[in-house]
Specification:
disordered N terminus, 52% helix, 310 residues, alpha+beta, 12 helices, five-stranded mixed β-sheet
Length: 310
């Protein structure tokens, strides 16, 4: 979802010496719109959290990923933007006075996070240029429960919609073609030898591909790991995409998520695999413009600071 489609005002910047600037009325409007947007997005999550109610989609976004709801709500304009008439921002970490306003001190941040920037840049460039693949059919979630009893799985409170023997048979019938290290590392010992490659952190740039659900979700991780150098609106856009992707991830899993209003994508059948691949393509298409925006933002950080780009 873009800032326009979410109801947030379009970023309006004026040029001043040293880059873009936002007048006080502009940045306050953006900040307030961001708060309202995130409050609406997380209203149900907060309601469940206060009552100890678990959810397989929403919880994942704040348990597997490390960005907390209060961090998602916090607004910042990102690298290279001067906030005019904003002396209160001088109390914020890594901000300094810049001409008529206050700006993020990106150079100071990169003294400790330069490696994260270059790693993110490499992954974004690789997945921008690489052809997407749509033949995995979500078997990574099946590989995470292969050979386990219903009480041993990661989400025992949800329950499985198929018997363990049916899950193992489907996994071996469909095959496992997972290229993402952060999915593969959760495979059971019985499932790891079934995969047609061994994803590692070292070969991640070579294996990540834009059709992968986890690669799409990880746009969110890449964006928030570079916060506050990446603007908050883009981080939330990536969050919304990650939530959409996680819905398909769980619907195509062997877990029974019907009680959450999520109908199964029965990838154990030919019709289900066709449905999965079609939705996977839609999500890859939705990720493409976000990846381009994030890549441009990271390249701007690198280019302005003269940081190595390889």
């Amino acid at each position: 979802m873009t800032a326009e489609s979410s109801g947030a005002p379009e970023p309006v910047a004026i040029e001043r010496s040293g880059g873009a600037a936002l007048e006080r009325s502009e940045w306050i409007a953006r900040r307030d719109a961001h708060h309202e947007r995130v409050d609406a997005l997380l209203a149900e999550h907060r309601w469940r959290s206060t009552r100890g109610i678990k959810h397989p989609v929403e919880d994942f976004l704040f348990e597997y990923y490390t960005y907390r709801p209060y961090q998602l709500r916090r607004w910042h304009p990102g690298h290279g933007v001067t906030l005019v008439d904003a002396d209160e921002w001088l109390a914020e970490r890594d901000h300094h006075r810049a001409g008529a306003g206050v700006r993020l001190d990106t150079a100071t941040i990169l003294r400790t996070r330069g490696r994260t920037v270059t790693q993110t840049l490499a992954l974004l460039r690789a997945t921008t240029d690489r052809r997407p693949q749509f033949g995995c059919f979500g078997m990574h979630e099946w590989a995470m429960v292969d050979g386990l009893s219903t009480g041993e799985v990661r989400h025992p409170q949800i329950g499985l919609r198929l018997a363990p023997k049916e899950i193992s048979a489907t996994l071996r019938d469909v095959g496992v073609r997972c290229t993402h290290v952060d999915a593969y590392r959760f495979f059971t010992p019985a499932a790891k030898p079934l995969n047609d490659c061994v994803p590692t952190r070292e070969n991640q740039v070579d294996l990540d591909q834009p059709g992968c659900l986890h690669v799409g979700m990880d746009l969110y991780k890449s964006a928030y790991k570079l916060s506050p150098m990446i603007g908050s609106e883009l981080i939330v856009d990536c969050f919304e995409l990650a939530r959409r992707i996680r819905v398909l991830d769980m619907r195509a899993s062997p877990y029974d998520v019907s009680s959450f209003g999520l109908p199964a994508v029965a990838v154990e059948t030919a019709a289900g695999r066709s449905e999965y691949a079609a939705e996977q393509r839609e999500l890859a298409d939705a990720a493409r413009p976000l990846r381009a925006r994030l890549l441009a933002a990271v390249e701007a950080i690198v280019d302005v600071l003269g940081h190595p780009q390889t």
